[in-house]
Design a protein that fits this description.
Largest sheet: 5 strands, mixed
Pathway: Cofactor biosynthesis; coenzyme A biosynthesis; CoA from (R)-pantothenate: step 1/5
Pfam families: Pan_kinase
CATH architecture of the largest domain: 2-Layer Sandwich
Helix content: 25-40%
Bound molecules: adenosine-5'-triphosphate, pantothenoic acid, potassium ion
Function: Catalyzes the phosphorylation of pantothenate (Pan), the first step in CoA biosynthesis.
CATH superfamily of the largest domain: ATPase, nucleotide binding domain
Protein name: Type III pantothenate kinase
Number of domains: 2
CATH topology of the largest domain: Nucleotidyltransferase, domain 5
Cofactor: K(+); NH4(+)
Strand order of the largest sheet: 3-2-1-4-5
Order of helices and strands: EEEHEHEEHEEEHHEHH
Number of strands: 10
Radius of gyration: 19 Å
Length: 244
């Protein structure tokens, strides 16, 4: 049994795996980390390894308190991955993007793949059919767009996400919802169109906190898999064991 932990910029997500099967998923805040891991290990005492991919600034020590109970692994950019990293700055490529690329390569062999993660940031990652990781894009996520409008202006309120009815927003509130939500959707459809124009055949994997909402609104039909990062983390760890 493997406990995988994804430390994002906003929240922490975790899942317990038996082979390739998810037994249970967890979401929690950073300040709850030790308490929650303790609870998970009480429920699943057969966990032998804890695998962490962290882009957030969390103290490693919080994980090391469990060192006597199971083996702790922090994935890094120096681990073995199933793709060739063609990013010009491979050392600064986010570990979450490395893991997503790894999962896409292992789960969808010999084809072009585009991974779109709609979390705190939106990330686009492209791995071609010869398993070259080429890069992608980083832009602000849905929540971040609402917050940025509020934080960097005098007059714009901080709104909670709401699906706009119109693209012509007829009030301050509607204009913000239209700009943020429609802008988010148009951006992603626009990127997908750009990839389609350049690569005849590729699979799109959509994941992250806003994936389910987004999938329904894209003009391009894509299935969302909210668990793709944790599944990929589990597979990347298996790959590391087999290839180290
Ligand atoms: N309870 C919640 N807290 C924060 N964001 C949420 C919540 N529920 C849904 N969301 C949506 O999820 C998005 C954040 O995605 P996610 O939770 O994947 O981010 P994260 O934890 O920072 O991970 P990462 O850094 O890997 O993107 C926000 O844009 C927000 O709209
Ligand atoms: C882009 C984020 C913040 C997305 O979580 C993360 O992958 C990260 O911190 N990346 C480092 C920069 C890069 O990937 O090139
Ligand atoms: K993300």
């Amino acid at each position: 049994m493997i406990l995988t932990v994804d430390v994002g910029n906003t929240r922490i997500k975790a899942a317990v795996f038996e082979g390739n099967t998810v037994l249970e998923n967890f979401v929690f805040e950073k300040n709850e980390l030790e308490k929650k891991i303790e609870k998970i290990l009480e429920k699943f005492p057969n966990c032998s390894d804890l695998v962490v991919a962290s882009v957030g600034n969390i103290d490693k020590q919080s994980f090391l308190t469990f060192e006597n109970e199971l083996k702790i692994h922090f994935l890094t950019n120096e681990d073995v991955y199933p793709f060739v990293n063609k990013y010009a700055t491979p050392k600064t490529l986010g570990i979450d993007r490395m893991v997503l690329a790894s999962g896409a390569t292992l789960q969808f062999p010999k084809q072009n793949r585009l991974v779109i993660d709609v979390g705190t940031c939106i990330t686009y990652d492209f791995i071609d059919e010869n398993d070259n990781y080429l890069g992608g894009a980083i832009s602000p996520g849905l929540r971040l767009r609402y917050e940025a409008l509020h934080n960097y202006t005098a007059k714009l309120p901080l709104l909670a996400f709401e699906a706009p009815e119109l693209y012509i927003g007829n009030s301050t509130t509607q204009a913000i919802h239209s700009g943020v939500v429609n802008g988010f959707v148009y951006e992603i459809d626009g990127f997908i169109d750009e990839y389609r124009a350049n690569f005849s055949n590729f699979i799109i994997i959509l994941t992250g906190g806003d994936a389910v909402f987004l999938a329904k609104r894209l003009k391009n039909t894509i299935f969302a898999n909210s668990n793709f990062l944790l599944e990929s983390l589990n597979q990347t760890f298996q790959y590391k064991i087999d290839n180290d």
